[in-house]
Automatic annotation (TrEMBL):
Reactions it catalyzes: [protein]-peptidylproline (omega=180) = [protein]-peptidylproline (omega=0)
Protein name: peptidylprolyl isomerase
SUPFAM superfamilies documented for this protein: EF-hand (SSF47473), FKBP-like (SSF54534)
EC number(s) recorded for this UniProt protein: 5.2.1.8
Keyword annotations: Calcium, Disulfide bond, Endoplasmic reticulum, Glycoprotein, Isomerase, Metal-binding, Repeat, Rotamase, Signal
Gene Ontology molecular function, alphabetical: calcium ion binding; peptidyl-prolyl cis-trans isomerase activity
GO CC, alphabetical: endoplasmic reticulum
Length: 210
């Protein structure tokens, strides 16, 4: 183990001396609460239901899903930059009911431009609680289930039908507005040739770990 650590340190020093590539920005993750029982863990492609609070470095809160807007948790798809990149990195391998504190550097948040009330080059802290995890339409296991006519491509109708069935399977009433918004988002990002279908190749999501 010691030899491995020394080897890593030496290679890092050599890289910095020779003008090597700078290390990528990382998210600082603190697990604040994790339930004893965990039936599944979040992965890229899953749809997460979350409550969240956002803070600046000085501790000032700039957003709370529990106190602002409709005070409802939000759904988002993990791994497709539907939220900031720091969320995609920091919310992997979570259990339903788990709460984490993420400290996210500017490069994985809103960068040099900022956004709205977020100034440029802001390091942000989020307290995020995952309330529910569902299979998303981007998971590889779901493709054949979604492809109703077995033509190896997905129409908007097929994706929407899959979402409707998933909601009903978990005891939730269909939500056409939410489903349509999610379908439009998926096609905007995945339908590369803009032919109105997502092919099996376009559907394939590249994981960071591959």
């Amino acid at each position: 183990m010691l030899l491995t650590v020394l080897s890593w340190l030496c290679s890092s020093l050599l890289a910095s001396v020779s003008g090597g590539k700078l290390p990528e920005a990382e998210v600082n993750i603190e697990v604040m609460y994790r339930p004893f029982l965990c039936h599944r863990k979040s992965k890229y492609g899953d749809i997460l239901l979350v409550h969240h609070e956002g803070y600046f470095e000085n501790g000032t809160m700039f957003h709370s899903s529990r106190a602002q807007g409709d005070k409802q948790p939000m759904w988002f798809t993990l791994g497709i930059r539907e939220a900031i990149q720091g969320w995609d990195k920091g919310l992997q391998d979570m259990c339903a009911g788990e709460k984490r504190k993420l400290v996210i550097p500017p490069a994985l948040a809103y960068g040099k431009e900022g956004k709205g009330k977020i100034p440029p080059e802001s390091t942000l802290t989020f307290i995020i609680e995952v309330l529910e995890i569902r299979n998303g339409p981007r998971s590889h296991e779901s493709f054949q289930e979604m492809d109703l006519n077995d033509d190896w491509k997905l129409s908007k109708h097929e994706v929407k039908e899959y979402l409707r069935k998933e909601f009903e399977r978990h005891g939730y009433p269909p939500n056409d507005t939410l489903h349509e918004n999610m379908v439009e988002d998926i096609f905007a990002k995945e339908d590369e040739n803009k032919d109105g279908f997502i092919s099996s190749r376009e559907f394939t999501y590249k994981h960071d770990e591959l």
